[in-house]
């Protein structure tokens, strides 16, 4: 894939970029290594001052970078502005809380006395340059949720962003540099995916984090494993959305529409499989389908647009293959299942609801990355949980109920990194984020996110001798 800005609303290539030469990659790796040697010794107060300066700059420039994101990957402009605001919030949150999250921890003296220690503590130290391989769907947020904690921990970042969002990637480098971070603390590497292995195998790169597809995660994890370097992976998701008889069906259906089509349906944590108890199935299905059908597909730069184009022609083709396979095998469309009329240019797809989905269909097991929902009827909570877990993914989950026993059962048994009750999945800087099974491992955000790339150091002190 060329490194280029291609507007998905009309398919026009707006800018192209040459990949970095081997010499320039080497220069940037050396700069990252040199920056870490000094930046690691800065205090939390100085790091917080720099990160807050970056947050202030991003807040001032939010409208401009939002337009860049929309131009590069097609999300509605309002969503792009909200993404920028979320990044500002996360930066300020880590600036305010990092020192507390990484404070020394001291076990009870009675617990360690038999180790011979007079005292002991756990100390968190930065690791070094971390490679971040990031996707296009949230081109600002995915990076900031790594960069903010990493920089506050004293690490430095090397960003290999998706090739279709190069201008957003370059903006991020400029954001941190112009905020005052020392040269080399955060650098964007405009390189093809084939360059990742060499960079990750370089001794100066100590760890990696990846958000993206399962194949990409498998590749990075295998390379890092061979080099014995830690990784955090956030991969695909096919999140279940369970609706039980005691639910507020109006609220559940209304929220379901947003949960499915957020970011034009191109979100790992978007609800994708709607599993509804038979007692409320007809009511939910009607309201949900009406809501999906009412969405306005259009130019993502227009305020009235609910759903913009998919990010690429290939992305739409992949989605169409999943839907067509399901239709051939007996699925019934309640709405959509085609390209919307009136769009001769751009990579648009109509909001779609499919029912009568079976396990013979690819869409039952594979992630649908676009505004396509699958709808299932189940007789009870046991069947709902079994169906929810019938997926290789385990990123998050949603449960709508006012029965506390339903909540207890799902928190215990749903195979996912999150259970969101009477609401849709969302990430927040104070809450750990990540999944299980083929959705990856490790956690971003909260304390877990900032400690992911720290040397957790045990400091043991014996009795003083006179």
From TrEMBL:
UniProt keywords, alphabetically: NADP, Oxidoreductase
Gene3D superfamilies: Aldehyde Dehydrogenase, Chain A, domain 1 (3.40.605.10), Aldehyde Dehydrogenase, Chain A, domain 2 (3.40.309.10)
Xref: InterPro entries: Ald_DH/histidinol_DH, Ald_DH_C, Ald_DH_CS_CYS, Ald_DH_N, Aldehyde_DH_dom, ALDH_GabD1-like, GABD/Sad-like
Pfam families in the record: Aldedh
SUPFAM superfamilies per record: ALDH-like
Family from the record: Belongs to the aldehyde dehydrogenase family.
Protein name: NADP-dependent succinic semialdehyde dehydrogenase
